Automatic annotation (TrEMBL):
UniProtKB keywords: Hydrolase
EC number(s) recorded for this UniProt protein: 3.6.1.63
GO biological process: organic phosphonate catabolic process
Pfam families reported for this sequence: Amidohydro_3 (PF07969)
Gene Ontology terms for molecular function: hydrolase activity, acting on carbon-nitrogen (but not peptide) bonds
Enzyme class name: hydrolase
Record-linked InterPro entries: Amidohydro_3, Metal-dep_hydrolase_composite, Metal_Hydrolase, Metallo-dep_Hydrolase, PhnM
Domain of life: Bacteria
Protein name stated in the entry: Alpha-D-ribose 1-methylphosphonate 5-triphosphate diphosphatase
Gene for this chain: phnM_1
Domain Amidohydrolase: 230-373
Length: 393
């Protein structure tokens, strides 16, 4: 019976009209029982009352805007599933896309690093951004992808090739976000140098003996090129027409610099001081879903839940676990006693912060990017994913 229901639902999604009814609608500011009518890939009507004839009965499940992911390392995980094991990029892109669709993510800003190290102690920090962006576009144009993919360039200032790699992109690439990354050890995300040692030696296979040499190499690189690379990244974002983001702000002084650059998003500030300073400057704060679900940062930084309680958390990112995005939003909704507010951190808020005004809300005229989910125990379970009204998961 359920298999037939899914077949009927998929068939309806290919016609001019699809009605999803008897759902708990996650609307801006509230949740209530009702139905959504989809026509031409957009939300045409939102109503309540009896289930309309021909509608799909959602059995009381939540119906929310599709999730919007601004920062994820998931694509990199697919192209390098193990240290020094490189996967064919087209296959990795399709697998990444399918995984996100299955988690309810309907728009993703694929985070691609620009800025490589070609002569240093680590041999796996190679260039890949331009060909990867081309391959994502080619797979999208070929109709191989289920969800909407946009570009997020992670500009690594502590690198050798950043300016050259930035020059390979232009306004025609529709880069959505440029984030300023500085992974020089001993500050920001890795203020605790032992955490950086665990990360580099554990994940990337660097020997303990070579760790000190690697750190000194990075210090020298930062001193020589860091300021120049930061300025070039800010200018590149302006040239692309992209939203500018900071990464791992720790101090008020760092946030003051971000504000002078025109930064609008702060990814994963590491302290309450930095998050508060971001809000003082109108910079929206993004925190990681794994931090929220696990009850703290794996790097020993500020807790996402603490920032949520202080009113300093605006947007959630799945970071390195795509399925965490929905779970974290539902957790926040339950913690705040306001599911609409919790879900807004992964729908409307990231959409508006990234300049997307056509999606992220259950409102007439918006794209019909939707997710149907139910709660089973304390875990949300995805039961349907729609992109422009067509079922993709």
């Amino acid at each position: 019976m359920k298999d037939q229901m899914v077949k009927n639902e998929m068939a309806k999604s290919t016609t001019d009209e699809l009605i999803l009814a008897n759902a708990t609608l996650v609307l801006p500011g509230e949740t209530r029982r009702g139905h959504v009518v989809i026509r031409g890939g957009e939300i045409a009507e939102i109503g309540s009352g009896a289930v309309p004839a021909g509608a799909v009965d959602c059995e009381g499940d939540y119906l929310s805007p599709g999730l919007i992911e601004l920062h994820t390392d998931n694509l990199e995980r697919h192209i390098t599933p193990r240290p020094k094991a490189h996967w064919p990029h087209n296959a990795a892109i399709v697998a990444h896309d399918a995984e996100l669709a299955g988690c309810g993510i309907t728009t993703v800003f694929d985070a691609i690093r620009v800025g490589s190290i070609v002569e240093g102690p680590r041999g796996d920090y190679r260039r890949y951004a331009r060909p990867m962006a081309d391959q994502i576009a080619a797979m999208r144009d070929a109709g191989a992808l289920k969800i909407s993919h946009k570009l997020h360039l992670r500009a690594e200032t502590c690198s050798e090739t950043l300016i050259e790699e930035l020059s390979e992109f232009g306004p025609e690439d529709n880069v959505g976000i440029v984030s300023l990354m500085d992974h020089t050890p001993g500050q920001r995300q890795f203020s605790d140098i032992s955490k950086f040692e665990d990360y580099v030696c554990g994940k990337h296979g660097l020997s303990k003996e070579g760790f000190g040499e690697y750190c000194q190499f990075l210090y020298d690189l930062h001193d020589r090129l860091g300021a120049r690379h930061e300025a070039a990244s800010v200018q590149a974002a302006a040239n692309y027409g992209a939203v500018l983001a900071s990464h791992d702000d720790t101090t008020r002084d760092q946030v003051e610099t971000s504000a002078r650059h025109g930064i609008r998003l702060a990814e994963f500030p590491t302290t309450v001081e930095a998050a508060r300073a971001c809000h003082d400057h109108g910079i929206q704060v993004i925190m990681g879903a794994p931090n929220l679900i696990r009850g703290g940062s794996h790097s020993g930084n500020v807790s996402a839940l603490e920032l949520a309680d202080l009113g300093l958390l605006d947007i959630i990112s799945s970071d390195y676990v795509p399925a965490a995005l929905l779970q974290a939003a539902v957790m926040l909704g339950e913690h705040w006693g306001d599911m609409a507010r919790g879900m807004a951190t992964v729908t409307r808020s990231p959409a508006r912060a990234s300049g997307l005004n056509d999606r992220g809300a259950l409102e007439v005229g918006q794209r019909a990017d939707l997710i149907r989910f139910a709660k089973r125990g304390n875990v949300p379970v995805v039961r349907g994913v729609f992109v422009e009204g067509a079922r993709v998961g």
